[in-house]
Each structure stands twice: as C-alpha cells, then as structure tokens.
Specification:
5 strands
Length: 144
C-alpha cells in the first residue's frame, strides 16, 4: 500500500472563480481510502477536505498545498506525475466496474461504436436517449 502525491500546479483561474485562498496545489491519494485518511491525519488535513462526490467516484483525493506536499514526501509519500495518477484512477474505475485491467471502456456519451460501455454507463446512455425521445415527442412540430 502506498500514498502518492503529484506535482504542484498553478490553479489560479479555478481558485479565483471559487474564491479560494490558495492558488497552487497538488493531489494526495493512495491505494486505499483508509490508508489515505490515516496519512492525511498525520499531515493535519481535515477529513472535510477529502474529495469524493459519491460512492461510485473513483477519483477520491485531497488537495494539498506545496508546504503540505513537502511534508507528505518527508513522511513517505511517493512522488508521481499526473499521468501516473490518471492511470491509478483508470485502475480504480476498472476495479469498481469489474472490467478486466486494460480493457477498453468507452466514453460516457456512448458515441464510439469501437468501445464497450460498462453496464452502468450503458444504462445512463439508454436513459438519456429515452429522455431525448420523450422531449422530441413533447415538442410541437412546425407545419410542413
């Protein structure tokens, strides 16, 4: 089990738009949520700063400032790049969806016929198509 920290990036535009105090940060994540929370506690991070939008969200992490990043590295976090973090997120998604590692999982829009959608994504696509069909039926048609 490992804790990972990627490189610090300038997020000034996002920070200003959201009224945030810090403009430069990076991401702290781990192989498991339990390990991440334990490490975050050692760093002095609040649990409320943990970012996970839903139980299905595989992109869970903490945002950390440059000073906290330096402390994380001193405490044993492995320095990685954004590409590694992206691959880690893909692996989590595959584990969540029960797909084989490295299997091609399609975009959520479902427009690419060369990829296989996960059952959850296929359901979302089907629901959206049904919504569009219903909306088209409710719209008045112009006289021909």
């Amino acid at each position: 089990m490992t804790v990972y920290v990627d490189e610090v990036r300038d997020w000034t535009l996002i920070a200003r738009a959201r009224g945030l105090r810090h403009t430069h940060w990076c991401h702290l994540t781990a192989d498991t949520e339990a390990e991440l929370h334990a490490f975050a506690a050692r760093l002095g991070l609040r649990r409320s700063w943990f970012q996970k939008k839903s139980e299905r969200d595989y992109r869970w992490h903490y945002d950390v400032t440059p000073n906290k990043r330096a402390l994380a590295v001193r405490l044993g976090a492995q320095e990685v790049d954004r590409r590694f973090v992206g691959q880690l997120m893909i692996r989590r998604q595959e584990e969540r969806d029960g797909t084989e590692p490295g299997a091609v999982v399609g975009p959520r829009c479902g427009n690419n016929p060369n990829v296989r959608l996960t059952p959850g994504d296929q359901q979302v696509v089907d629901e959206f198509k049904a919504y569009l069909k219903q909306r088209a039926a409710e719209r008045p048609h112009p006289a021909a």
